[in-house]
Amino acid sequence: MTLVLQISYYLSMLSFIVGLKYLSSPLKAKRGNIIAAIGMITAVLATIFSVYLGKSLNLNFILIILAILLGTIIGKRMSDRAEMTKMPQLVSYFNAMGGGCALLLGILEAQQIHQDSRTAEIVLLIAMMIGASSFSGSIIAFLKLSGKQKDKKSIFVMLLSRSILLAMIIVPVLVSFDILNLSLLQEVAILACLACFYGVVFVLPIGGADMPVVISLLNSFTGLATALAGVMFHNIIMIAGGIFVGAAGVLLTLLMCNAMNRSLLSVLAGKFKKSSSYGNSVAKELEIQVTTIGETASKLAFANKVAIIPGYGLAVAQAQHLCNQLEIILENRGVEVEYIIHPVAGRMPGHMNVLLAEADVNYNKLKEMDDVNDEMNSYDVAIVLGANDVVNPAAEQDENSPIFGMPIIKAYNAQNVIVVKRGMSNGYAGVENKLFEYENCTLLFSDAKIALADIINELKSLV
Known about the structure:
Helix content: 55-70%
Low-confidence stretches: 275-283
Number of domains: 2
């Protein structure tokens, strides 16, 4: 049976690799997800049968099956009910469950560990602490994304997080050198509490717009905790799966930090760089041009090529389906329509891609920022929906700007730019948008969903 189990694990690992490969292609992503899920189901069933095959059923077996069924039903219902705009919250919640599992595994293993080895205990403690931090941190991320928790950027919170992290390092060291006399269970209890508290204060200072980075980082934490748990249980599928998740999470985190031209430390501190001279340079009132629904519809109707630049405001307004309707109407008039996506737009990695895919937008029409920036002047109209900092020319032109150096979508190079905004509030970085003063830029003050509906109706009335 051991050979069959090992073969099942290797087949599962192969399915993970194939699934990840398919996830890199929008056309094969759904298939890749299914393949990876089949691999996980195979690993779980193989493990259960290797333990209980040929044995009489006991309470543990019944509880395991009930837990699997209950988790499957609850997870399926949550996924079915979750709106696409709430997907970041769902991802954070599921990641919290993964971290919580690693925490519970560490606590349970501490009660029955037989190895008289401090090294094995350290592996257990690290896995448990990472899982606990990921659990509580993901819960706070979930609350922030749901608007139930505000940012806490005080110096006290920063000092507290560093103090807790230091304590999490010092306690195992003191126990290892017999300076602190604790049993393994006592040590686990203390470190579990510290790690849960650390996860809370770790995420508290981080702003809502940086949640994509936080979600990726917490995912990598959960992956690492799973891999370490695999080492603890000598389970190769847990090790492989954890490494895949951890490595992907770290890579995605660093890529998004590069896309914002910010260090990971500055993101985790909830800070943009500051300049005393910048506040004075933007104190003047912006000179803007306001447009109307009729003017916007006319520009779009008689354009040859249109760019739609979505941002978090599109998700808030739940206007992705109207985007697709606008695209169809314009294409029926012979207008070429493309969507330009900034890597960190939204509140989770790939947020805009997920929203537009849910609205049945053809993925081939989604363009990466770097692929089209040099060709922005070929667009007759660029319509910005709910995006702000990612189209702000100050990132390129004003060395005193807090966002200077951040790669942006060069919307200002389009022949005409229409920015749909509810008001003149700044973006997450608190920077006034220099794009609004450009001669080719006009502002349409409205909720994105209402504006798109009105534009669509106006286009239908045009001959």
